[in-house]
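Deliverable D5.2: sample structural annotation.
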Amino acid sequence: MKPEFGLFAEAGVPHPCCLPTRQRAAVLIASRAASVARVRAASGSTADMRKLDGGRFLMGTDSDEGFPADGEGPVREVMLDPFYIDVCPVTNEQFAEFARETGYQTDAERFGWSFVFQGHIPPDRPTPLVDRGAAGIRWWYKVTGADWRHPEGPDSGIAARPRQPVVHVSWNDADAYCRWAGKRLPTEAEWEYAARGGLEQKVYPWGDELTPGGRHLCNIWQGEFPDRDTGEDGYTAPAPVDAYPPNGYGLHTITGNTWEWCHDWFHPTYHLTATRMNPVGPPEGVARTMKGGSYLCHRSYCNRYRVAARTSNTPDSTTTNIGFRCARDV
C-alpha cells in the first residue's frame, strides 16, 4: 500500500494535515454553515419511502479492499437528522410521468447522444450511430440517439421496462426530477447510512459476505470483464428495482444495478476537516458523488459495490448504468 501522503498527492490535493491550522478551522466553520443552510425539501409525497431515524453511525472504511485515493476513509462518526428515502430507485415509469407533465428534456436528449456499454450494442447497428471508445475506455460507446427512452440507442425502448431504473439521467436531470416531486437527492452521508440498513461497518447492505450461502443479493458482473458476463445473478443489464431482497431498512437494489447520484460535490479529502453533523460535501467542485456501484462492477477492476465505496462524474454525464433515488426531509 502506498504511503498516505502519496495517495493524496496522487489525487492532486494537499493532505488536510498539511493545511495551516487557521485554514482547517475555516473549512470546518464553512462546512458547519453549509450544513445549516443545506437544501431541504418536505412537500413531496412519502409514499414508497422509508422514514429513517438518523442519529450517529460510522461512515467510511479503513479496509484494504477500499480505494484510499477515493477518500473512503478514515472511518468517522457522523450525525444525521431523520429523513425519508425512496424504497427503490426512480423507475422508467415514474420518470415518464415527470417528462409528460413538465416537458422536461434531459441532457442526453439535448446532446443527442449518450454512452452505452459495448455488450448492449446490437451487432447490426449502423456504424454512423456509434463512436467506439469515446470516453477513453474501450467498453463505452458514444451512441447517437441513446437516452432514457432509448437505453441502447434509437432502435430500443422502455415499453417493456416500466419497473427498471431510469438510466441516461445526469445529476442535473435527477435534481430536476427531485424538485418536481417535492424532494431532493440524498447527501452522501444519508445515502450510506440508508445503504447500511442498520448494520455497523459491514461491507455490503446485508453483511460481509458477497454471496451468503451462494445466493446473489445484488446485480453486478460475473465472468471476465468486459467481454463476458455470465449473468449468474440473473441479469446482464439493469434489473427491476425490486429484483432482490431489501436491506434492513427495507430498501431495494441500493448496491449494484445502477450507480446513484448524491447531492454532494465530490472531493477525496474534504471530509477530513469538515463537520460531522449533517455533512453536505464541499461548496463547489467539478464532479458530483455517486454511490452503490452498478451491474458493470467487477472485483477485478471496480469493487465499488461496497457501501463505503464512492466515485464521481460530472453533473451532465449520462450512461446506461447511472440512476438515482430521492430523499426528503421530515
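Annotation notes: The first strand starts at residue 49 and ends at 52. The CA atoms of residues 92 and 166 lie 5 Å apart.
The annotation will be released with the project's public dataset once the embargo ends.
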